[in-house]
Each structure stands twice: as C-alpha cells, then as structure tokens.
Amino acid sequence: VRKDIRGFITNRLMYAILREALYLVEQGVGTVEDIDCSFRNDIGTWAPVAGPFRWMDLTGIPAYQAVLKDLAPELCSTTAVSPVLGNMVESGALGVANLQGFYRYTPEEAKSWEEAWHRCARAVLKLTVPKPTQTL
Fold first, then answer.
1. 21-33: b or e for each residue (b if 16 or more CB lie within 10 Å)?
2. Which stretches of 17-135 are assigned E, i.e. beta strand?
3. DSSP states along 93-114
4. Cβ count within 10 A of residue 110
5. What tens-digit pLDDT sequence spans the chain (136 residues)?
6. pTM for this one?
C-alpha cells in the first residue's frame, strides 16, 4: 500500500458494494435475498482468485469502459447512510449475534452460518492463486 487512507482498501471496496446493494433494495430492484443470490452467483465465483483489475484483464477491458459509460451515472453516490441500514440498527438488529438482521435466525441457524463462513474463508485461502512474481 502506497498511502494510508481511512477505512483501508478492502473495507472501502466492500462499503461501496454494500452501499449499492442497499440502494438496489431501497429502489425495489430486488429483495435482500435476490441481491445476496446474485452476488454469490457472480462475484462470488471469481473474487477468490481475481481482484477487480485481474478480472477486467481476464474478461476484456474495453467491455468495462463501454458499460461504465452508461452505468456509472446510475450508480448510487449518496453520502448519507442508507435508511434501510439505519432502520435495522434502530430496531436493535445485530445480525447473528442476536438472531435478527436482514435475515432471522434460530440459534442453530446462526451457529451453522458462522461455522460455514469460517470454513469457506479457510478453504478460499488455501485455494487462492499465488501472487505472481513481477519482473522488471
């Protein structure tokens, strides 16, 4: 990393995705379940092996410029916190910690999801493509 920034690189990328996901729910484009399913079935399939720049290299850089010319103006760029998220926090939702979040959980489901998340993270780390060496 060449410069300290507030929020770190991965957190900033993640929050940009979260902001757009919340925006899509607010706009009625899809449900929480729809957004989660779409994300897992697309980004979830390539993110473990390629970051956004490698992905563009692998799938054709010009396509991203063409799409962004039309799509960029429609992406959420609000500086306010999502009302959906605010309402969740005001209602006391903590996620699996108190079994209330965007999804409702039984204690068994919460434990199962947490265990699955940890197993997946460990498996992805084992499968990740090694960082290529760079030549000058």
1. bbbbbeeeeeeee
2. none
3. --BTTTTBSSSB--HHHHHHHH
4. 19
5. 789 899 999 999 999 999 999 999 999 999 999 999 999 999 988 888 889 999 999 999 999 999 999 999 999 999 999 999 999 999 999 999 999 999 999 999 999 999 999 999 888 888 776 666 655 5
6. 0.85
